[in-house]
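Sorry to interrupt, but I need a hand with the structure work. I would like you to pick a protein and set down its sequence and fold. Please put the record directly below this note.
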Amino acid sequence: MTGAGDQPVVAGQTIGQLALVVRDYDEAIAFYVDVLGFALIEDRVIPAQGKRWVVVAPRGSTGSRLLLARAVDDMQASRIGNQTGGRVFLFLHTDDFWRDFRAYTAKGVIFVREPKVESYGTVAVFEDLYGNLWDLLQPNAGAQT
């Protein structure tokens, strides 16, 4: 099936998981579950590959999940905390910006850009435990974010 310009039309797809390179499974779980309040969806040992399959997601989320992938070599380790070259990497949407901002601040989350009201919603930028940048964002009703 093709659309305009003979480009394939893709329907029924979603991005299920994003791999986030981490130094250590347990320290990453502690941050995402205990500090950010995410749910631990899966934590399974894969003996044949010498790794774990660790998946987290915001509680109640039906969208994308994070696969916490432990770095296995120097190349991967060099990307920990800087998977996007200093740009914001992930966008955490919330239905109550100030609730989550206050809760994260109380738990020691470092915000590198203070809250700001933009045309698309209220946003602040924080670092995860490795330095990856995240937007905490409460989109305005009808905003395309």
The helical segments are 25-35, 74-77, 97-106. The mean pLDDT is 94.
